[in-house]
């Protein structure tokens, strides 16, 4: 009888603890947040993009490169269609064009996630793509031949430190920084990682000579990008609702400079080359994003940070929508007077900015 009482007490305490943790996680995921519409003028859906536009990066203000068809480990698939990379050239007046992939590459299992472009001193361009074929994490490096609308596959990079890669920023022909958005790779341990708010995510530096963790302490490290002078990195500490500014030290080690609160779960970060402003596609309500109820869809939010290195960075909500126009925004970038907004698995939007 005594044993049964002890057992009941233990079970009750555990149930309370887990209940408390779920409640705390709901708060952390901004599950109570309601959104007011904050639309921009002349928004239109970008033609041909129907299976997400998880990441977008603009090259020299001329071309926008777009990754579609994310296959994220542990997340239900909305489409089994192979992922694709598109290029949008607004000056041409044409819809986005698919880039043809050449070389020894399994295009059928392509599931592109974060992307980054590196331009070499000789003008050659390399597109780095986080890929999740068969629920793995790996990084593909392609050479981008603009005249031929082609990506030539150069290399696949796999490494035990690149285990849950979300986003990437290229800093050399074969060098990059990447974020891991979970610590555990086992799907059953990812929920406890969230429930107990374990800030165990990191940033990894990769070069062919050395691979190592260069920053840690993130609770869901997500988007990553670099300042125009290439001295600072910006990382979205998603579940802590902040953008972390890091300075690149000797040997590519990073040290934290500061954090800027954004009040949302920000995904990819784009940096406007002319101004140094940061633009983020964010998830205003992580619980809705997780549940994906078609009758109560997750919304979209675009946040900009100006003067991030000053004592008073300016954080502005530039766009928000309750999910009736765009579901689950993951990236936003200014481009030729427009704002391009991509989403994890739905559509992409283009609005007037100026
Ligand atoms: C979103 O807001 C619009 C009004 O702007 C409203 O008509 C619509 O029902 C709302 N949708 C959702 C899913 O809340």
Question: Can you give keywords for this protein?
Answer:
354 residues; mainly beta; Neuraminidase; five-stranded mixed β-sheet; four-stranded antiparallel β-sheet; 3 helices; 12% helix; 43% strand; globular; binds 2-acetamido-2-deoxy-beta-D-glucopyranose
Runs in which pLDDT lies below 50 for 5 or more consecutive residues are: none
User: Distance N terminus to C terminus?
Assistant: 74 Å
Order of helices and strands: HEEEEEEEEEEEEHEEEEEEEEHEEEEE
**Total beta strand runs:** 25
Question: What is the tally of helical segments?
Answer: 3
Radius of gyration: 20 Å
Strands of the widest sheet, in order across it, are: 6-10-9-8-7
Show the helix and strand layout.
Layout lengths: L1 H27 L15 E2 L9 E5 L3 E6 L15 E5 L8 E2 L1 E3 L9 E8 L5 E7 L6 E8 L4 E8 L7 E6 L5 E5 L6 H9 L5 E6 L4 E8 L2 E6 L5 E6 L4 E7 L5 E8 L3 E7 L6 E6 L2 H6 L8 E7 L7 E8 L7 E7 L2 E6 L5 E4 L2
This protein binds 2-acetamido-2-deoxy-beta-D-glucopyranose (NAG).
How would you describe this protein?
Helix content is 12%, strand content 43%. The chain has a single domain (31-352), classed as TolB, C-terminal domain (Neuraminidase, 6 Propeller), CATH 2.120.10. The strands form six sheets. The chain has a five-stranded mixed sheet with strand order 6-10-9-8-7, with no helix packed on it. The protein has a four-stranded antiparallel sheet with strand order 1-25-24-23, with no helix packed on it. The chain has 354 residues and is mainly β. Residues 37, 297, 322-324 line the site of 2-acetamido-2-deoxy-beta-D-glucopyranose.
